[in-house]
């Protein structure tokens, strides 16, 4: 930001001047408390963020005397323009400037909206007159400047009452009111820092409105300039072609309003941004209007000064717009505005590829600002919000930036480090000469040092980014690139800085991941080509050793080897010459490998060690063709860790010492127990005269698991020695590499075996259960529990049923010490699965429990071991499906699919030596399973409702025209429920018919049946006539009556029917209960009807009684006709008992009455005895012109197609 004055860029915070009468009482405390609210010269402060921090900060200026206040006074005299105006000949922007830096300085340092005067009461009452006189003077000055005056009276007197009298007198004679204008504070009674801070907090919080009013008044005056007449001095003696136009004045006014608005609401810059955006466009328009003048080679110095000031205003206006959008937490808009600003300037001034240093400066300025803005704002980038505002906007977010596609394509940089890198890319020597408002570097050395400085800032910014935001992201490649560029810049200097070049090459090399071998080779070649002069460090030898792992043409000068100081001892991390491939796996008694182990099982650790260094290549690099080089591993140390949270015990550490022998490719090592570790020996030796023979070794050893948990190889350390024999001299290099093993995600590991015939290591994949080959899980010694179910492959369980299932359990493992276990138990669990044994989401309340035990309580098996229970012991497991809402289950469509109950038996063991919170303390493993088919109910019913008939004497149809005897059951007016209207009663029979009964109910026995009838109308009374019974095979019947409770006539009433059936399986005493579906049936209660009561007499004779019912208050007329044609038998109605003719023209039926028509008939002997078709009795309502169907009341008469009636004996 060195190209811009601080007055242009700093935060626009309201200015407060502070004056101490003397540096005495509370001076230090108040200054320290004021710091919290002092923004000083900051470019950014987080209080600017909208809706983030409620505290307003100010710029606080300390002055010695009241004379400094006059600097803020308007310097205008009479009708003259201010010296900050372009219309004043003495102004620095006369005759065509827009806004001077002095204007910004005036509001940042001179014109305060409030003045705090701190004085003391130490002088005594006689000095009060001087205090009053001086305060009145300050009051007069502040009044003239429209500034708010606050007087702080500080005291340390113990006589507070006397102080109050003095303060009240001073207040009375100065006319300063209480509150925020005159404040008394006593150090003796309020010494605590918190009290001072509280006083300062209240003071500055009270300034919010004062500051807002002060700067609002200034903004109002600025707006009034539109109506002002501007006089202009003569320009005849000035060499300028730039004319001051209304566009200039408009830009000046909008700029002022934009910056003054920041003072009015410094923590919400939305209004300021609107003004500044308009001002920016006005400035761009001004630049376009004077472009021809500026392109003239003979442009005057006066116009050049105008141009530089204009460019400066454009830059700072764009800067404040961007800063404002950051404060509104709109970084995407801010970055887009800045990108547009750079493009606008380059286009408006027709620079093209010129002015690169200015473009670089803009990216530096942006980077410095972004370093001040909270990283949370930059990282989140408000992408979601921006996306919602513009549906056509396409965003592609990448690390450090955003690619935005709208009407134009924007490449936005959202990380300051990348903004610095862009500035570095652009900062070059300008190809053309032009006028600039910033310093343009032309010296090559200065340019290189500037580029180096930018890169160093990029590195520092990237380091901050990593520490604050991306601590879990690997950014070494970015650091390596930056350091590489710095090194290249140092190399470009006329007098190359070799020391800095090597230092940054090494820093770049350190940050290159070892996986990027091509880059490391390139940089190694550079480093080794310049580091052979003088004494060489251990870092250089580590680089030489790494170079020997590549197939590159790196060669040191012959005399370089003499610059090393031997012996050399390398530290951990200096080299990466070895690769390891460890695995831990179990082995059972038969030698088979397994991924999980139990206590006292053998656990094999196998480590493949591979040398990456090529000793022949090392000889070439060191330029020692006659030397003999030997690499030997001198030690291999393995440390284990138990990942279980409650235990630190794990496998013992292993330390293997290396020998000088070449050794076998696969070495099985016998371990020897020491006090706190195992020891052994292994061989790993490579020699340059043997080529790459045996560059890999596999070491293998075994330990017994003595602690349950999750064990891992935590760390491995390999020590090595490289011996270089050149002539009679031997040069030694020692070092060690540490391998920290992290978790990896893999389903298999690799085990190596040696093919003795070919002497080749063969790799075999083995399954692992821990997702990491170097981690193994050990469990308690597994009890060998055997559990068996009886064969129930065709069994079905019904919802609501309890099944008692015998389980046969035995303990086969006699090696188990039951006292080592806190628990050995058997748990039965039930779950619903489909045909593919996949879990279902149905909640049917499926439970399993052992006899006489609570649900989900396991069966204790420890007694089996105490009794040496290797024989089968029988236990009973109860399986039940008991849902919360059976009706919801019955109506669930999923029950139409085939699914089953899966019953699992699992053994639970709990180690006595483990805490209850340990993940290894409880081990569960399955031992048996079985399946049951599931059905909602053993009975699939169909329901039908049939009318039934009782003789007239039962009062089912109480006719109002008939007088009943006194002993009848009819109610009288004094009875409860008496109705003046007759209450007809209808008799019904409910029929529950089994469907597919035999298929699912083999071995079931019905114990009781209860049918429930629930009307949906409370005015309907239903009475059961008898109990439900099985009247014939697969049919359950029950008689009931319906009547109105109040006499109100109901034509149809819906009744809900359902039944509960208690049943049991044969051979079991458990009674189960099953419910049927609920059926809604509409019963006609007040419609006229015809019912048939048929009785078979002797021989082939029948009595057919047709009853016409009228349960209404109206009189009906019916015509009747008994048809005997088209029957399957010949019917004869010639008996003398037949009083009614077969056809009647009109029969009246009175209200609440029955009319019976009886026929006696005989059938010819040739009739079919199984199914006899009955004559058709037609009843026609003469008045309403409708026919009444005939309803049957006996089970012997059935209804078939077209309502045809048949007698079924």
From TrEMBL:
Top-level taxon of origin: Eukaryota
Trafficking protein particle complex subunit domain residues: 310-438
Pfam family, one: Foie-gras_1
InterPro entries the record matches: TPC11
Name by which UniProt lists this protein: Piso0_005268 protein
Organism: Pichia sorbitophila (strain ATCC MYA-4447 / BCRC 22081 / CBS 7064 / NBRC 10061 / NRRL Y-12695) (Hybrid yeast)
Organism phylogeny: Eukaryota, Fungi, Dikarya, Ascomycota, Saccharomycotina
Name of the coding gene: Piso0_005268
């Amino acid at each position: 930001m060195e190209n811009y004055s601080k007055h242009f860029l700093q935060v626009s915070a309201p200015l407060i001047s502070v004056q101490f009468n003397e540096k005495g009482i509370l001076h230090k405390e108040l200054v320290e408390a004021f710091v919290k609210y002092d923004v000083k010269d900051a470019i950014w402060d987080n209080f600017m963020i909208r809706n983030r921090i409620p505290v307003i900060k100010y710029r606080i200026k300390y002055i010695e005397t009241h004379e400094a206040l006059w600097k803020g006074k308007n310097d205008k005299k009479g009708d003259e323009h201010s010296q900050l105006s372009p219309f004043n000949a003495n102004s620095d922007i006369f005759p065509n400037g827009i806004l001077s830096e002095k204007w910004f300085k005036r509001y940042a340092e001179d014109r305060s909206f409030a003045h705090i005067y701190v004085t003391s009461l130490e002088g005594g009452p006689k000095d009060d007159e001087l205090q009053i006189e001086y305060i009145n003077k300050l009051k007069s000055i502040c009044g003239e400047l429209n500034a708010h005056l606050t007087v702080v009276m500080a005291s340390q007197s113990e006589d507070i009452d006397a102080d109050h009298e003095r303060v009240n007198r001073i207040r009375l004679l100065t006319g300063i009111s209480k509150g925020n204008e005159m404040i008394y504070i006593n150090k003796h009674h309020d010494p605590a820092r918190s009290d001072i801070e509280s006083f300062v907090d209240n003071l500055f919080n009270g300034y919010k409105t004062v500051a807002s009013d002060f700067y609002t008044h200034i903004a109002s005056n600025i707006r009034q300039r539109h109506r002002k007449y501007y006089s202009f001095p003569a320009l005849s003696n000035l060499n300028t072609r730039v004319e001051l136009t209304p566009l200039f004045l408009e830009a000046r006014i909008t700029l002022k309003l934009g910056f003054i608005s920041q003072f009015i609401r410094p923590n919400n810059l939305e209004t300021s941004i609107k003004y500044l955006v308009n001002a920016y466009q006005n400035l761009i328009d001004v630049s376009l209007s004077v472009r021809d003048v500026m392109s003239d080679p003979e442009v005057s110095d006066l116009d050049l000064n105008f141009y530089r000031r204009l460019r400066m205003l454009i830059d700072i206006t764009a800067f404040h717009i961007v800063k404002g959008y950051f404060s509104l937490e709109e970084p995407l808009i801010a970055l887009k505005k800045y990108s547009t600003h750079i493009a606008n300037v380059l286009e408006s001034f027709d620079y093209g590829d010129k002015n690169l240093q200015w473009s670089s400066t803009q990216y530096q300025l942006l980077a410095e600002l972004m370093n001040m803005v909270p990283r949370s704002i930059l990282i989140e980038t408000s992408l979601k919000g921006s996306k919602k505002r513009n549906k056509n906007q396409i965003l592609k977010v990448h690390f450090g930036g955003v690619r935005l596609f709208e009407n134009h394509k924007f490449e936005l940089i959202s990380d300051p480090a990348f903004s610095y890198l862009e500035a570095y890319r652009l900062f070059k020597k300008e190809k053309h000469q032009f006028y600039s408002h910033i310093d343009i570097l032309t010296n090559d050395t200065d340019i290189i040092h500037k580029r180096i400085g930018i890169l160093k800032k990029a590195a520092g910014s990237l380091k901050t980014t990593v520490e604050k935001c991306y601590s879990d992201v690997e950014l070494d490649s970015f650091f390596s690139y930056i350091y590489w560029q710095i090194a290249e810049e140092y190399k470009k200097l006329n007098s190359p800085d070799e020391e800095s070049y090597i230092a940054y090459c090494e820093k770049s090399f350190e940050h290159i991941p070892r996986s990027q071998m091509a880059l490391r080779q390139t940089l190694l070649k550079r480093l080794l080509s310049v580091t052979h002069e003088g004494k060489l460090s251990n870092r250089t030898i580590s680089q030489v050793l790494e170079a020997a792992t590549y197939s590159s043409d790196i060669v040191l000068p012959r005399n370089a080897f003499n610059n090393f100081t031997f012996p050399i001892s390398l530290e951990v991390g200096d080299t990466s010459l070895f690769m390891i491939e460890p695995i831990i796996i179990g082995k059972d008694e038969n030698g088979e490998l397994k991924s999980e182990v139990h206590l006292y099982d053998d656990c094999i650790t196998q480590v493949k060690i591979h040398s990456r260094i090529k000793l022949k290549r090392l000889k070439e690099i060191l330029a020692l063709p006659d030397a003999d080089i030997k690499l030997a591993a001198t030690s291999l140390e393995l440390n284990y860790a138990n990942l279980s949270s409650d235990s630190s015990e794990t496998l013992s550490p292993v330390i293997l010492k290396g020998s000088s022998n070449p050794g076998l490719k696969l070495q099985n090592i016998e371990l020897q127990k020491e006090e706190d570790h195992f020891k052994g020996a292994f061989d790993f030796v490579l020699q340059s005269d043997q080529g790459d023979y045996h560059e890999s070794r596999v070491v293998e050893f075994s330990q017994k698991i003595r602690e349950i948990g999750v064990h891992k190889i935590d760390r491995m350390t390999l020590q090595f020695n490289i011996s270089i024999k050149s002539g009679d001299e031997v040069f030694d290099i020692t070092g060690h590499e540490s391998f920290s093993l992290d978790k990896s995600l893999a389903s298999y590991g690799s085990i190596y075996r040696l093919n003795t015939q070919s002497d080749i290591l063969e790799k075999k994949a083995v399954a692992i259960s821990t997702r990491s080959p170097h981690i193994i899980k050990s469990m308690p010694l597994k009890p060998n529990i055997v559990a068996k179910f009886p064969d129930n492959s065709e069994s079905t369980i019904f919802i609501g049923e309890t099944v008692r299932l015998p389980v046969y359990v035995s303990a086969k493992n006699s090696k188990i010490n039951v006292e080592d276990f806190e628990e050995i138990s058997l748990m039965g669990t039930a779950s619903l699965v489909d045909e593919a044994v996949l879990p279902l989401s149905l909640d049917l309340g499926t439970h399993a429990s052992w006899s006489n035990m609570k649900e989900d309580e396991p069966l204790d098996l420890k007694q089996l071991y105490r009794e040496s229970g290797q024989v089968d012991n029988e236990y009973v497991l109860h399986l039940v499906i008991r849902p919360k809402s059976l009706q919801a289950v019955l109506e669930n469509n999923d029950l139409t699919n085939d699914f089953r109950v899966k019953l699992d038996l699992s053994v639970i063991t709990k180690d006595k030596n483990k805490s209850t919170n340990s993940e290894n303390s409880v081990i569960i493993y399955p031992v048996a399973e079985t399946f049951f088919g599931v059905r909602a109910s053993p009975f699939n019913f169909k329901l039908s409702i049939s009318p039934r008939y009782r003789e007239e004497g039962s009062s089912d149809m109480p006719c109002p025209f008939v007088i009943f005897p006194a002993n009848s059951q009819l109610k009288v007016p004094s009875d409860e429920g008496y109705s003046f209207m007759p209450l007809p009663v209808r008799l019904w029979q409910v029929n529950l018919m089994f469907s597919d009964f035999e298929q699912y109910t083999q071995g079931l026995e019905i114990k009781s049946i209860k049918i429930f009838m629930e009307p949906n109308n409370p005015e309907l009374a239903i009475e059961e006539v008898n109990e439900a019974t099985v009247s014939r095979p697969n049919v359950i019947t029950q008689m009931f009556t319906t009547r109105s409770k109040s006499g109100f006539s109901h034509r149809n009433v819906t009744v809900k029917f359902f039944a509960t059936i208690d049943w049991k399986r044969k051979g079991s005493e458990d009674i189960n209960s099953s419910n049927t579906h609920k059926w809604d049936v509409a019963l006609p209660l007040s419609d006229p009807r015809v019912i048939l009561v048929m009785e078979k007499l002797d021989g082939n004779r029948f009595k057919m009684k047709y009853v016409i019912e009228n349960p209404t208050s109206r009189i009906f007329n019916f015509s009747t006709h008994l048809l005997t044609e088209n029957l399957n038998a010949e019917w004869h109605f010639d008996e003398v008992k037949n009083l009614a003719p077969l056809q009647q023209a009109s029969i009246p039926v009175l209200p609440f009455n029955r009319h019976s028509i009886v026929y006696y008939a005989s059938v010819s002997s040739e009739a079919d005895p199984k199914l006899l078709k009955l004559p058709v009795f037609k009843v026609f309502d003469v008045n309403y012109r409708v026919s009444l169907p005939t309803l049957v009341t006996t089970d012997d008469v059935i209804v078939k197609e077209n309502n045809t009636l048949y007698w079924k004996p």
